[in-house]
Every structure is written in C-alpha cells, then in structure tokens.
C-alpha cells in the first residue's frame, strides 16, 4: 500500500513538471444509460508499440485514477467541465484540457503516450 501511495505521489509530482503534447488522444462521446451522472472512461497505450500501459495514471480534476492491467480506466463525475490528463513515468504527459460533459453523457478517451527519451541529467 505504501509503495502504491508513493508511486501515485511521484506521478502527481511529474504532472507538474512534465512536458505535454507528445502523443495523441481521441475522444468518443456517447449517451450514457446510467442517468444523471457522466462517465469518463478510456485506455492508455504506449504510442509506438500500441500496447496498454498498466498502472498509468489519469488525473481528472484533482483525482488520480490508475489504469488496470489492460490500460483501462473508468470514473463517474457530475456534469460540467473537467480537466483531464494522462501520463506514465518515463513518458510525456498528455493534457486534454477542460472537457464539458452533459448530464448522462459518457466519453471514452484513447490516450497514446510517447516515451520521453531525453536524458535525466545533461
């Protein structure tokens, strides 16, 4: 448990320091059949190999969500605008920006993150 919390802390710090816009994302919107809440779901994959990244982190507003072993995540939110980012240690951060969701809407995001090959120390 301590290791997971420590990793989440490190990844949260990396969101503050990471460069963005290396990689791509696509968004698909659907009507949600679950009523008043909206759902943000998706997958985080490695850009070149197109392989899922397990334990990647998606940040929705101030909440950090880990992906499962297939790189998938799902989070229920209230309708409105939500800041969405995704990243993984050693990869560039992808910042979607603020996405507006209507009541009962589901969005599915495919994040394709690119490895950051810059040296840590020059």
Structural descriptors:
single chain, 122 residues, mainly beta, Immunoglobulin-like, four-stranded mixed sheet, four-stranded antiparallel sheet, 1 helix
What's the arrangement of secondary structure elements?
Elements: H1 2-17, E1 23-31, E2 38-46, E3 57-60, E4 63-66, E5 72-77, E6 80-87, E7 94-101, E8 105-113
Quick recap:
The protein has 122 residues and is mostly beta strands.
Description:
- The protein has one helix and eight strands, in the order αββββββββ.
- Residues 5-10 and 13-20 have low confidence and may be disordered.
- The strands form two sheets. The chain has a four-stranded mixed sheet, with no helix packed on it. Strands 4-3-6-7 form a four-stranded antiparallel sheet, with helices on one face.
- It is 13% helix and 47% strand.
């Amino acid at each position: 448990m301590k290791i997971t919390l420590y990793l989440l802390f490190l990844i949260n710090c990396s969101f503050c320091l990471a460069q963005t816009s290396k990689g791509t994302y696509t968004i698909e919107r659907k009507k949600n059949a679950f009523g008043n809440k909206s759902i943000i779901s998706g997958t985080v994959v490695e850009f070149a190999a197109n392989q899922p990244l397990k334990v990647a982190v998606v940040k929705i507003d101030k909440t950090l969500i880990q992906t499962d072993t297939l790189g998938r995540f799902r989070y229920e939110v209230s309708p409105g605008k939500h800041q969405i980012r995704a990243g993984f240690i050693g990869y560039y951060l992808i910042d979607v920006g603020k996405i507006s969701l209507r009541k009962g809407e589901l969005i599915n995001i495919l994040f394709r993150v690119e490895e950051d090959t810059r040296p840590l120390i020059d």
